[in-house]
Amino acid sequence: MTDMIFINPRNPKPLHEQIKESVMEQIALGVLSPGDRLPSVREMAQSMRIAPNTIQRAYRDLESGGVISSSPGRGSFVAIHSDGLRERRKNELKARFDQLIGELRNLGVTNDELINQLEGGSDQRDAEREYEQHGTEREPEQCSAEREHEQLGTERDYK
């Protein structure tokens, strides 16, 4: 289990927060299920080579958030009602996505550019669209260069 918990010592976020988020992510992804036992504080601290107090703090935060439940002498377990964590995580990510979309729109990114990025954002896709629209096949570099010239108001023959 401890090999599934990821921390980055270079991340400015405190280690206990990284541990907490990693456990929550494992639950959201279905790697950890309700009722699964988590490693003891001592086991995790030794395995990750960090202070037991750091692990204890992460577990305490997870318990106060209803994500895990602890029982003296038995250990810590993924809470039975943690199934909603996946849905909650999805909603958090959607909210972040909406925020990013808003920021990108404020910077002048068009809906077409956003859709292109969402679909994988490649020049090859542009070339495929060009072919569908005009029945001509152009190299992806030509489509990209042609768009650039259109934006600059200059023309050039790319056929």
Overview of this protein structure:
With 159 residues, the protein is mostly helical. The protein has 7 helices and 3 strands. Strands 1-3-2 form a 3-stranded antiparallel beta sheet. Strand 2 and strand 3 (75-78) form a beta hairpin. Helix 6 packs across helix 7. The model has no long low-confidence stretch (mean pLDDT 81).
Any chance you could write out the topology, listing elements then pairs?
Blueprint: H1 15-28, E1 37-38, H2 41-48, H3 52-64, E2 68-71, E3 75-78, H4 84-106, H5 111-118, H6 123-134, H7 140-152
Antiparallel strand pairs: 1-3, 2-3
Helix pairs in contact: 1-3, 1-4, 2-3, 6-7
Largest sheet: 3 strands, antiparallel
Extended strand count:
3
Radius of gyration: 24 Å
Task: Output the CATH class name of the largest domain.
Answer: Mainly Alpha
Q: What proportion of the residues is helical, as a percent range?
A: 55-70%
Structural descriptors:
159 residues; mainly alpha; Arc Repressor Mutant, subunit A; 7 helices; 3 strands
Quick rundown:
This protein is mostly helical.
